[in-house]
Design brief:
about 750 residues, alpha/beta, 8-stranded mixed beta sheet, 6-stranded antiparallel beta sheet, 28 helices, 22 strands, about 15% strand, elongated
């Protein structure tokens, strides 16, 4: 898959993504604009006495970390919360938390509330309640506390007295001379030291039982101050997070929808999945009060032009062998194959051919509903042997079409369609009609398989957004298995959004949208003079000849307001020249391989130009690329067999004053029989070769309703090029527009 395939869900569901982001953003804004500001108060408690000791031990630091974690758990218990609510007269406490600091020597009480005063009061009250739960804060009996203090004072005095006596006795040792006196004095010193040790031990024991000697203590290190700056809510962050969430969810939903949707999305999907040429692009058929509006009702509509294009492509496909029976089928029900079959039969009948439309879908016949006729005495009734072909044919719309409906649905349609009687019916129809169009059953039904063995060609119908990939793959496998003579694929109900990258717009210019293109240019105030190609074709079709009939073999002329002679191509004759058609098809097939290659723009332009010159017979030619302002960007010229790259400066005169400039401005192909007789041809006096009369044809290259280049061929003989040559070059231009070349041309722009 290419990059644009991954971006397709975003392009198709951009409205869903945009709507989700907008809804999420607006909802977040509405939800947060009424939120009050939130304040946070903090009280810090000191745990233990490690930080108050001059020489703390590692044990004291470890004990402090353990106590901080324990008191953090005590702070969030119900006894603390209930005691705080009772002291402050509250029914509910604001949101708060107790967290030890990383070093473990402090405990932080954090309270958040919309009222800064309440947050401050609750933070301090929680700290007070935690302190009251510590052992160091437990109250003792006043008499007992006084007794302990008196005992401590008495022991401290005795320690001091004993210390002085030891010091005095040690001074006497220096003056004693007898051994008996020395032993007696040393014994007194040992007794005094033992007494001192006992007094110190008793003092330490009594001191540990007071608040001054406790290690498990809590003291307020930093009381809560009144907060003045709110900590939230962060409205901008909330709105941004909501918008991002909407973007992520909607984008995920778009890709999920595309993943779950197994249908063909665009014409590019059809071209990749089906190994057959696309021979028709049909838009949405109009429906009126009486039902489907056919090409007979709208002969000059874009849909009619699309079916004419389909008819022409089928005629080109019939150069190798005659196509007399066409089975129209699809991968699934509802792709529009019946409407395609009906309008194809009508458009072929407009050529003057004898056409019969046969409803071959015996299980679910549809043709009778489209024509508004009864379904009795149809194809299935021929197998009973009581009726012949003439008995079941119906003339529709004043001999514009002959149709055979499906008839009574039989119990065994597959056996009937595969029988020899079906061969006899088709043989009888071939004797009476030039073309037999069969509205066949969908290809997942076995009826379609047996019918393909009895027809000359199979026309496949797909509908983007409806035809499923799995059914298409199964259909392709079955087509290959039965060796079905597939002539091409028709893309039905194609809209511009599902057409692919610029392809449908180019086709619509040539076959659909002459009027639409003129309308758009008229809106911009830049409507060029003259007639559009489809309009000129209709003018030619209505133009009488000398004998009062349409002059099919001759090209009509129209003279627009600018006075130039515009060459208008008539439709191809009923029986095309076989050799010319074969050359055209061979050239288009060869060009399709070149267009699929990975050559750069200049090399690709040279290859296309050389192949066209070899096939048409021109001696020189050029291809020019222009930007949106119709200024030349790059060009290639082939003269006397040699290719020469052209700079913008070399091309500017031709684009501004020559035939290429006229084609770019008027956006239509043209054929000059004699360059001396047409002012659109630029003649240079300094160039003898260019001064001699010659013939030329020139065709615009289109992309997204914009001219991106011009294609010109020249021959030294006057009246050398024919309308078939111009038709071939026009077909090549359309084929180029179906390739990756428009992207290369845009890249150069």
């Amino acid at each position: 898959m290419e990059l644009h395939d991954y971006l397709t869900p975003l392009r198709r569901w951009w409205w869903l993504i945009l709507a989700s982001v907008i809804i999420a953003t607006v909802s977040a804004f509405i939800a947060t604009r009424e939120l009050p500001p939130v304040y946070m108060a903090r009280t810090t408690l000191l745990v233990g006495r490690a930080l108050t000791q001059a020489n703390p031990t590692e044990f004291e630091f470890g004990l402090g970390r353990t106590l901080a974690r324990a008191y953090a758990g005590v702070a969030v218990r119900e006894p603390i919360a209930n005691a705080v609510m009772s002291d402050l007269g509250l029914k509910e406490l604001p949101k708060y938390s107790a967290n030890p600091t990383p070093d473990g020597q402090f405990l932080e009480i954090l309270v958040t509330d919309a009222s800064p005063e309440l947050a401050q009061r609750v933070a301090n009250a929680i700290a007070d309640q935690i302190i009251k739960q510590s052992p160091g804060a437990v109250s003792q009996d006043s008499d007992q506390q006084a007794f302990v203090e008196a005992q401590l004072a008495d022991i401290r005095k005795k320690i001091e007295d004993t210390t002085r006596e030891i010091a005095q006795s040690q001074e006497k040792l220096a003056t004693v001379t007898s051994a008996a006196a020395l032993d007696s004095l040393q014994g007194e010193i040992r007794a005094l030291e033992q007494r001192l040790s006992t007094l110190q031990s008793n003092y330490a024991t009594l001191l540990a039982n007071t608040a001054r000697g406790a290690s498990n203590t809590l003291t307020v290190f930093e009381p809560a101050a009144l907060p003045v700056v709110p900590i939230g809510p962060n409205v901008a962050l909330i709105i941004l997070a909501a918008a991002l969430a909407g973007l992520v969810l909607s984008t995920s939903a778009a890709y999920l929808i595309e993943f779950l949707d197994d249908t063909l999305k665009t014409s590019d999907d059809v071209a990749r999945l089906l190994p057959y040429p696309i021979v028709g692009y049909i838009g949405e058929l109009e429906r009126g009060k009486a039902g489907l509006v056919s090409v007979v009702d709208r002969p000059h509509s874009a849909i009619a032009d699309a079916f004419r294009s389909l008819r022409t492509n089928l005629e080109f496909a019939s150069v190798d062998k005659q196509i007399q029976t066409i089975q129209v089928t699809s991968a699934a029900q509802g792709d529009g194959k019946s409407s395609i079959a009906l309008n194809l039969a009508l458009i072929i009948a407009q050529r003057g051919k004898r056409v019969v439309l046969v409803d071959g879908d015996l299980r679910r016949p549809t043709v009778h509903r489209l024509l508004g006729v009864p379904n009795h005495d149809g194809l299935s009734d021929l197998f009973l042997g009581k009726l012949n072909v003439q008995d079941v044919t119906r003339v529709w719309r004043d001999n514009k079409l002959v149709a055979i409906t499906g008839g009574t649905p039989p119990p065994n349609p597959t056996e009937l369609l595969g029988s020899k009687r079906m061969d006899q019916i088709l043989a009888e129809l071939k004797e009476s009609y030039d073309v037999i169009v069969i509205d066949g059953p969908p290809f997942f039904v076995p009826d379609a398989w047996v019918l393909t063995a009895k027809v000359d060609s199979v026309l496949l119908v797909t509908q983007p957004g409806h035809t499923r990939r799995g059914l298409v793959r199964a259909m392709v496998e079955q087509l290959k298995r039965v060796h079905a003579p597939v002539v091409g694929v028709v893309i039905n109900r194609l809209s511009a959004s599902r057409a692919g990258e610029g392809r449908f717009s180019y086709v619509s210019y040539y076959y659909y949208g002459g009027a639409e293109s003129q309308r758009r240019r008229s809106v911009r105030g830049k409507r060029p003079p003259g007639l559009s190609l489809p309009a000129a074709l209709r003018l030619w079709q209505k133009a009488p000849s000398a004998n009062g009939k349409a002059s099919a073999p001759e090209a009509a002329e129209a003279r627009p307001p600018n006075g130039h002679r515009v060459e208008v191509l008539p439709p191809a004759p009923a029986v095309p020249d076989t050799e010319r058609s074969r050359v055209t098809l061979d050239l288009l097939y060869a060009l399709s391989h070149e267009l699929a290659s990975q050559m750069d723009l200049r090399e690709l332009m040279e290859r296309i130009l050389r192949m066209t010159l070899d096939s048409v017979g021109g001696t020189s030619g050029s291809m020019i690329v222009v930007n949106e302002a119709n200024e030349p960007l790059e060009g290639i010229l082939i003269y006397d067999g040699k290719a020469q790259a052209q700079t913008p400066e070399q091309l500017r005169e031709v684009v501004e004053q020559g035939l290429a400039g006229w084609v770019i401005e008027n956006r239509r192909p043209v054929k000059l029989d004699n360059t001396h007789e047409d002012s659109r041809w630029l003649r240079r006096n300094w160039n003898e070769e260019s001064s001699s009369p010659r013939s030329a044809i020139s065709v615009p290259l289109m992309n997204n309703d914009r001219v991106v280049g011009v294609f010109t061929l020249v021959h030294p003989d006057v009246n050398y090029f024919t309308r078939d040559d111009l038709s071939m070059v026009t077909a090549i231009a359309v084929g180029v527009s179906f390739s990756r070349m428009p992207a290369l041309l845009q890249g150069n722009g």
